[in-house]
């Protein structure tokens, strides 16, 4: 594989990681499977739930957005499968996964992006 092909592939992978998961268009048998937390993992992160910060909602006319800040010290207790190894940021989490971490929001929200400078920030959006 040439260097240009490798660069193109790398850029495509980054773009795919940054795009929200559109589960409706994925065939059922190829849906990503959530990585559920074990009871022991849930018990370790439970004390941090009261420290979550939920931003106010904001919108751009198409989507409604909000972000959730998790305590930085909690990140060490979350399974490595929840992170992108190269960046140390969260991968795009499925609803069962972010709810399993203790994030509580009404229905319709999707984790669509992470904020590399602050790996403890998860960005969410939903149709307006």
TrEMBL record:
User: What GO biological process terms are annotated to this protein in UniProt?
Assistant: cell division
Q: Does the keyword Nucleotide-binding apply?
A: no
Chain positions covered by the region annotation Disordered: 1-37
Q: Which UniProt keywords apply?
A: Cell cycle, Cell division
InterPro entries documented for this protein: Cyclin-dep_kinase_reg-sub (IPR000789), Cyclin-dep_kinase_reg-sub_sf (IPR036858)
Q: What's the domain of life for this entry?
A: Eukaryota
One of the Pfam families matching this protein, by short name: CKS
Q: Where is the composition biased (Low complexity)?
A: 1-24
Question: What's an example of a GO molecular-function annotation for this chain?
Answer: cyclin-dependent protein serine/threonine kinase regulator activity
State what this protein does.
Binds to the catalytic subunit of the cyclin dependent kinases and is essential for their biological function.
Q: Which family does it belong to?
A: Belongs to the CKS family.
**Protein name per the record:** Cyclin-dependent kinases regulatory subunit
Q: Could you tell me which species this protein originates from?
A: Candida boidinii (Yeast)
